[in-house]
Amino acid sequence: MNRDKAWLETLVERYGNLKGEMDSYKKQVDADNKDIKDLMSSLGVDKFESENYTAKYSVAVSENFDEDKLVSKLQVLGIEGLIVMKPTVDMTALENAIYNGKVDAADLADCKVRKETPRLNIYKKKKE
Tens digit of pLDDT for each residue in 27-51? Predict the structure, then answer.
């Protein structure tokens, strides 16, 4: 068991050091990425070649409807059959029904979705 603790010590120390370095690089890479895009956009350049790299800049456009505005517009247009009402649960009313014994919470157990996500946080010790 002592060997396992020693290996855990080694892994935690290595992870902490590497994670610190990676986070530092990520911040710089993200900042450089933004600066490159801003510069290429302001210069009107979609391709740039340096000594060792080629940078290509493009803008991807995607469109989605603002559902509330779309519903309002379709109501004004008066076209039938395009707007449907989705049933939703009034969670406050459900909580009250459970509290007052009108609904047995055990009957709803199979309706719950449980997601477990393992997490690990390692912090560098402050030197005293």
Answer: 999 999 999 999 999 999 999 999 8
CB 77 within 8 A of CB 66: no
HEC sequence for the chain? CHHHHHHHHHHHHHHHHHHHHHHHHHHHHHHHHHHHHHHHHHHCCCEEECCCCEEECCCCCCCCCCHHHHHHHHHHHCCCCCCCCCCCCCHHHHHHHHHCCCCCHHHHHHHCCCCCCCCCCCCCCCCC
And the tokens for 101? 């014994």
**Residue 68 domain-assigned (yes or no):** yes
Count up the domains in the chain and report the number: 1
In the numeric block, which tokens belong to residue 53? 């790299």
The pLDDT tens digits for 49-95 are: 998 899 999 998 888 888 889 888 989 998 888 998 888 999 999 99
- Residue-number span of the structural domain to which 19 is assigned: 2-107
pTM: 0.58
